[in-house]
Amino acid sequence: MEPQAKSVKQFAAMFGLNPNTVSSQITRQPESLPKFLRIGRQIRFPIVEIQKWEQSQLNPGSTASNQSN
């Protein structure tokens, strides 16, 4: 069974980012990242939220609710 969420390292690798940059964005500009879960000290990015975030990055003028109509 494939995991339903990605770790910071996995998320960073998907987009060619430095994991330290992603970690600092979590505290400094969380709105610039997909919605994430904090489980204890661990951060997880649900795959569904990563996909929504990708679409919003491709279409910066639209929102998820506009796309479904």
What would you say this structure looks like, in words?
- The protein contains four helices and three strands, in the order βααββαα.
- It is α+β, with helices and mostly antiparallel strands and about 70 residues long.
- The protein has one domain.
- A three-stranded antiparallel β-sheet has the order 1-3-2.
- A hairpin with a 2-residue loop joins strand 2 and strand 3.
- The longest helix has 12 residues.
- It is globular and about 35 Å long.
- The N and C termini lie far apart (about 30 Å).
- The model has no long low-confidence stretch (mean pLDDT about 90).
Describe the structure in brief.
The chain has four helices and three strands. The protein has 69 residues and is an alpha+beta fold.
